[in-house]
Design a protein that fits this description.
Blueprint (H helix, E strand, L loop, with lengths): L1 H20 L5 H19 L6 H11 L3 H12 L11 H11 L2 H8 L17 H10 L2 H4 L5 H9 L8 H14 L16 H9 L36 H20 L1 H6 L9 H4 L4 H10 L1 H18 L6 H7 L14 H9 L6 H10 L4 H4 L3 H6 L11 H14 L4 H12 L15 H4 L15 H28 L12 H26 L4 H5 L3 H22 L1 H10 L6 H7 L10 H5 L4 H17 L3 H18 L7 H16 L1
């Protein structure tokens, strides 16, 4: 019925084309025929404004997209009709000026119901195409038509496979919020989604059911407005498609906002910002993992989502985590139910027998991460129980594997729980506990943990993973702060963005080098290592883990290797460091500078370092450095300040080592 009416209307438009072509012959009848045509089209289309096809045709006429109009007409009528631009001039005038003005189109577009269960399998032209085109042309902003509610409803009514227009719809919506229309007033921008609206989509899902409800008092200027979305519309469990689209909206919104913050402040505009406190509540990593493993359904969304995540949340994109997550199954292979009582019972009896703990963790490894997350708090509470010297190695290995699974759901909350569980029990930090934002502010708080961690290889691997993520989060937080507070007025001591960047990198390097120094100090052999059975083997493995971590730090930023060498460390660790860190060969380039330092301790450290490097790396560079060190030794031995036989014997040993090379 509708297609017949549309076909009749198309015939009327065809008559208009013929009329336009013969206008020079029947000039007297043109005006009357055009008026009749307008009346006919208005009567035919008066009750069809709710259909997406007609709206889309009107939008294409307004944007002068003749090829798109031809495709739309041909697909609707089921026949191929040639449509030339010179034959559509009169039709465009009728559509845009007399029948469907831009104000009429925008007013009716927001009244079109959203497509229920929108996905890529639904063919044809849909309301989402119309809204996307109108948003792209800034028609809604021009006529002050609010569109937030419609977009929110459509996002909540989307399923897999992802419709290809939805990511583009999110992009133009974000741009219409933050970037003002160049041809219109600045204040004509759309409103962003509120935290309450976003959380409605997440809190009815897993792991959204485990949100921290104590942290819901998000204060911001737009929150005072009442949401225009009814509660009944979100009564069901939202799909993962809706959650991924809202996550993409949040990341893209913050990316566009930060990149345009200088212009926003110059123009005196107030733009909403989503806080890191709010973002930390969302299962970002879990959603990204689902998108990665279902790229067939989310192919058009995974790549831009990953790009934004690497830029703004690098601590959630660690290489070690990605490798470990490849082996985690999406489906559970066990139907057994695990309760908190089972966890408590198994770990309370760990000192007596480890059988229950081993069986429990093997059962947990058969569960999916989202099924395990409700047990995370109880499981992490017993972290210290595995640090005892008599704990079987199988227990610590299984504990690490379960922890890695939990790390795929809400990693930042897991890191906070883990560090709080590992805090030493002393009076200084008795009432101290970390929150999720603490590692972003001071990443070194991660190393304020029980000393037994540094003799438990599996537990140390967990702590180093948290440390690596915390340092990346701290660096990202500093970069975000610089973007969020651009230097508009140069009135203080800092006069340029380059100076701010230098100060940021100085702070980042300080945190990195202090962490390396703490870890190197943990590699020193103690009396308990000599006396307790098995501790030397644990120390050897711990040294390997720490050296591997430091190697990653050095190859990611080679400047840190130079800083650590200039700071110096205990010379008993030189043999361990040179043999355990493959990237130590770059330090050959820094030895001449160390030898030129005025402090004698630095010169001695440089000679000792050169002796180990020369033996480890038989390179031409090593030979030239060894010759330089021997010449420096000759100068030191001839100095009147060094007459001690013990000191001379130590220098001779280093000289002998260099000579043997």
């Amino acid at each position: 019925m509708n297609l017949g009416r549309i076909a009749d209307s198309q015939a009327a438009l065809g008559r208009s084309t013929a009329l336009n072509a013969n206008a020079h012959v029947e000039a007297k009848n043109t005006g009357s025929d055009a008026e009749k045509l307008v009346a006919e089209v208005k009567e035919t289309f008066s009750n069809l404004l709710e259909y997406a096809m007609l709206l889309l045709m009107a939008i294409h006429f307004h944007s002068n997209q003749v090829p798109a109009i031809g495709e739309l007409v041909c697909s609707t009528l089921g026949m191929k009709i040639p449509l030339r631009p010179n034959n559509t001039t009169r039709m465009k005038q009728i559509f845009t000026q007399e029948i469907f003005t831009e104000a009429v189109v925008t007013a009716h577009a927001v009244k079109v119901p959203v497509t229920v269960n929108l996905n890529a399998d639904i063919p044809g032209y849909l309301p989402v195409h119309c809204i996307h085109q109108l948003l792209k042309s800034r028609a809604f902003s021009k006529h002050k038509v609010p569109i937030k509610s419609w977009i929110y409803k459509q996002v909540c009514n989307s399923t897999t496979p992802l419709h290809p227009v939805l990511p583009a719809l999110i992009e133009v919506y974000v741009n219409s919020i933050i970037l003002p229309n160049a041809k219109g007033p600045v204040e004509h921008t759309h409103k962003p989604l509120s935290e309450r609206e976003i959380l409605k989509v997440f809190e009815n899902s897993v792991p959204g059911a485990n949100f921290d409800h104590k942290k819901r008092n998000y204060i911001f200027e737009f929150e005072m407005e009442q949401t225009d979305v009814g509660e009944e519309e979100l009564s069901g469990v939202p799909s993962i498609t809706s959650q991924l689209l809202l996550l993409y909206y949040l990341l893209l919104y913050e990316d566009v906002r930060l990149n345009n913050m200088a212009n926003i402040l110059i123009n005196g505009r107030k733009v909403k910002a989503y806080t890191m406190d709010f973002m930390s509540e969302l299962p970002i990593k879990y959603l990204l993992q689902q998108a990665q493993k279902n790229q067939r359904n989310f192919g058009g969304l995974f790549s831009p989502l990953l790009r934004l995540l690497v830029t703004h949340f690098p601590h959630l994109c660690l290489v070690d985590d990605w490798i470990a997550e490849e082996t985690i199954a999406l489906e559970s292979t066990s139907r057994s139910i695990i309760t908190e009582f089972n966890v408590i019972e198994a770990f309370e009896e760990l000192e007596v027998s480890s059988i229950k703990a081993i069986r429990l963790m093997r059962r947990m490894l058969k569960k999916t991460p989202k099924d395990l997350w409700p047990l995370a708090g109880t499981f992490i509470r017993y972290f210290k129980n595995i640090l005892k010297d008599d704990t079987p190695r199988l227990v610590t290995e299984l504990y690490k594997q379960v922890w890695v699974r939990l790390n795929t759901v809400l990693p930042r909350r897991l890191w906070t729980m883990s560090i709080n569980a590992l805090l030493p029990e002393d009076q200084l930090i008795k009432n101290f506990s970390l929150v999720q934002e603490s590692p972003c502010i001071d990443a070194l708080q991660v190393l304020r943990c029980d000393e037994r961690i540094f003799r438990c290889p599996d537990a140390l691997s967990i702590v180093l993973r948290i440390l690596q993520a915390s340092l990346a989060a701290s660096k990202s937080q500093l970069s975000r702060h610089i973007q969020d507070k651009p230097l508009i007025e140069k009135t203080g001591q800092i006069q340029s963005e380059a100076e701010r960047e230098e100060l940021k990198m100085a702070l980042v390097y300080s945190q990195e080098t202090v962490a390396v120094q703490i870890l190197l100090e943990a590699c020193l052999e103690t009396e308990s290592d000599k006396n307790l059975p098995g501790r030397l083997w644990a120390l050897r493995e711990v040294r390997g883990i720490i050296c591997s971590y430091i190697h990653q730090v050095f190859i990611s930023e080679i400047t840190l290797a130079k800083l650590v060498m200039f700071q110096g460390f205990h010379r008993d660790l030189l043999s361990v460091v040179v043999k355990g860190i493959p990237s130590m060969h770059v330090c050959l380039h820094y030895i001449p500078e160390l030898l030129n330092m005025p402090e004698m301790e630095k010169q001695i450290f440089a000679i000792d370092l050169a002796s180990h490097l020369s033996i480890q790396y038989s390179l031409p560079k090593s030979l030239s450095i060894a010759k330089l060190c021997i010449n420096t030794l000759s100068t030191l031995l001839g100095s009147k300040y060094f007459t001690s036989s013990d000191f001379i014997s130590k220098l001779n040993l280093r000289a002998l080592r260099l000579g043997l090379n």
